[in-house]
Amino acid sequence: MSRISATFDRLAKQGRKALIPYITAGDPDPSVTVSLMHVMKKSGADILELGVPFSDPMADGPVIQRAGERALAKGVGLRMVLQMVRDFRRDDRDTPVVLMGYANPIEAMGAKTFVEQASQAGVDGVIVVDYTPEECGDFAADIRAAGMDLVFLLAPTSTSARVDAIAKLATGYIYYVSLRGVTGAATLDTEEVLERVREIRAKTGLPVGVGFGIRDGATARAICEVADAAIIGSRIIQEIEAAPQEAAVRVAAFIGGVRSAMDEGRPRG
Predict the structure, then answer these.
(1) pTM of the full predicted structure?
(2) Which entry of 9, 29, 46, 60 is annotated as an active-site residue?
(3) Is 192 a catalytic residue?
(4) Does the residue 190 lie in any domain?
């Protein structure tokens, strides 16, 4: 069983839901990424999503775009991100780490080389925003053979056929994008999200996490009444951007508050 599956199983037995924070590797500085990963875990995160900076992040809104630009300006690329995961694994062998990014850096490295190095570094899952299920059967097979999970995105506009295709190929969990548009948008229709998550869960036994638009503990708790995980990215990046020198303290306080809201009234394991 993968670390991702084991985490979701443990939380389900406890009657709790997963908190999955996202940060961009290298923001605000490459030297603090690993420490931020540890801070997020200690503050209540269950799975960590680590963004790989890319020059054309088509699915990301302005907040995460700026984070990627800051990281790229400091020379952060895919190889450095893998080293960050290796460094994190020196002290944490249990917390799942998922890389989120785009196909170009992977293909520049070579897909098979990436899979091998990611597995050796301790990566548990990969989200490639611009890989469709029709285009990445071989990549998915290589990921599975290396003991990692390939996580796919679904959106409000995803057709029933697309949901079926992803349900057959995805492992780990499915990431439901709760908004039409890019990351960081402000308006979240909770009722629509809940209905769509129910439809997805009817077609797959995988956990379903919801991201894009979750900005506080109350929203995370509401979403997790039906979803298996709350995924939060832009709001965390905003905490870092507001005061880079206080990033660890601000991120810890924010994640701790969300974790408390999600666990309110739920049993603890």
Answers:
(1) 0.94
(2) 60
(3) no
(4) yes
In this prediction, the residues of the chain whose per-residue pLDDT falls under 50 are 182-185, 269
Respond yes or no: is residue 164 known to be catalytic: no
Contacts of 29 by beta carbon, 8 Å cutoff, 6+ apart: 74, 244
Domain of residue 200 covers: 3-263
State pLDDT tens for residues 99-143: 999 999 999 999 999 999 999 999 999 999 999 999 999 999 999
Among 49, 228, 239, 263, the one annotated catalytic: 49
Residue carrying structure tokens 């029933």:
160
Strands 48-51 and 97-101: parallel
Give whole-number Cα distances, 191 to 182, 195, 217, in Å. Answer: 20, 6, 17
User: How many angstroms separate the CA atoms of 260 and 148, rounded?
Assistant: 30
Q: Is 269 inside a domain boundary?
A: no
**How many domains is the chain built from?**
1
